[in-house]
Amino acid sequence: MEEGKVLSNAAQESGAAYAVIHEKFGEAISAFDDNATMPFFEVLDTALWTDIALFMRDHPKLKFNYMACLSGVDYPEEGKLGLVANLESLGVFGHKLAVKVKCPREGGSIPSVAGVWHTANWHEREAYDMLGMLFEGHPDMRRILCPDDWEGWPLRKDYKVQESYHGIKVPY
Amino acid sequence: MQELEMAGQGSLRLSRKSDTIVVLEKDLSTEQMVLSMGPQHPSTHGVLRLECLTDGEVVTEAEPYLGYLHRCFEKHCEHVDYPAIVPYTDRMDYLAGINSEMAYCIAVEKLLDLEIPRRVEFIRVIVSELNRIASHLVAIGTYAIDLGAFTPFLFCFRDREHILNMLEWATGARMLYNYIWVGGLAYDVPAGFNERVLEFVNYFRPKALELQQLLTENEIFVKRTKGIGIMPADVAINYGWSGPMLRGSGVQWDIRRNDPYSIYPELDFAVPVPDGKLSVVGDCLSRHLVRALEIEESLKIIEQCIDKMPGTQGFDPRSAVPKRVRPKAGEVYGRAENPRGELGFYIQSDGKSTSPLRCKARSSCFVNLSAMKDLSRGQLIPDLVAIIGSLDIVLGEVDR
């Protein structure tokens, strides 16, 4: 199997999958970014993210049944927070596609897809824990890795660690 | 069957265990009790706390609490250079350090678009398969201990010691290797390494069979694991399960085969899934079986690699290692098949800095553990121990 051939096939498959989604949602999603390392599109109308996710999971030509990863990301220049979801059609078509969703940095929220993929439940909790965006409709929106009474959002670029936590000096 | 008919009339509490139905309680009024398992509980395999809501001996709900081992891996990544992240990845899944390094290096190399020397790839595969066997031996050994069998644990650790000694010889460390570098290796393997690995493979084959006979064919072990914690295939995929966990549910999916990297496409190996003869597909025993069968496949891979490996003429393990790792702006999601499932790294580069803008580790254990709440519902407390053991979690990777 030639390495280059596999890659180009994969990019083609992602493009074909994108075309199906674009046909349905049109202007609600951005143009397809077919870079070599991680082809993706962005959801422009954040409120539609759950609908798009359901469509991607259930459409007979898409079947993105597997969420490999969901990462929370900080975009300080744009004043936004966002997530990157790496989706895959496991065992059906094998195609992969990444989706980006963004929300305002202060008081922003993104619709939850924990009801679409169970695995998103903990990933979204982690994104909330680390970056502080809320996921609307999430069944259990709590911190997961940090303690419940931790202050601030550690993975934001402007994060300042708290001076003390229950009498313990934090910065070392 | 008599119990089944009585079940319709109420006032009985029943539990299904393997193929028999057990009457647990009869006309008893019980109240719910909160039972905290862990963080220092021998069966939670590290610092994990399970808050169990129990009704008598039955767990109505078990909520995992994690983060006791959180070391801010992702925050640290944003402050150190790309190659300096490799030692951190060792400390995530400390039972399979080499596999973690490999996943991370694959992601960065994909971003850099690097060509890796062929001999490097072969050495990487040999050491990562050795590490996979060592990791599975710990998984099987500690699982046996969870269920009250002590001897298999000693067998596993005796043979794991041989692997760790070999890896120590090659890399200089027993568990935290820093051996696979971005673009290459820290060192070539020592002279005579291949012979010693082959010697180990020949020694270990009968031992693996012995372990199989001691544990997998043990009636008590089968009774404790068969039909417990069943996960259907579609739910497993929806939960993002991967690796032996997903294959235990009967989905023949392995990243080494389905999204191949390194030299795996050239190698001949099977992706074992349970056939449902010995176990119920998706139960704890299936997950154990997959791990046991994978050891044999790893041995096959190692033999093939040693057979096909190019010689040392003109070989420099660091020839493709970049002086300064500064990828062009972009993002990548790179992944590899870890002993515990898919370990992925999402890396974002701004094209200017020598450290990533964002590096997220998609931990296989974290994702596998997230199904715990559903798996534990309605199980007996001793079965809960069997289920956690079959998940084979490493808390260093769950909490990162």
Characterization of the model:
The complex is a heterodimer of chains A (172) and B (400). Chain A is α/β, with parallel strands linked by helices and 172 residues long. Helices cover 26% and strands 24% of the residues of chain A. Chain A has a single domain (3-169), classed as NADH:ubiquinone oxidoreductase Nqo5 subunit (Beta Polymerase, domain 2, 2-Layer Sandwich). Chain A contains 3 helices and 8 strands. Chain B folds into 2 domains: 2-65, no CATH class; 73-399, Cytochrome-c3 Hydrogenase, chain B. In chain B, strands 3-6-7-13 form a 4-stranded antiparallel beta sheet. In chain B, strands 10-11-12 form a 3-stranded antiparallel beta sheet. In chain B, α5 (118-146) packs antiparallel against α12 and α7 packs antiparallel against α12. At the A-B interface, β2 and α3 of A face α9, β10, β11 and β12 of B.
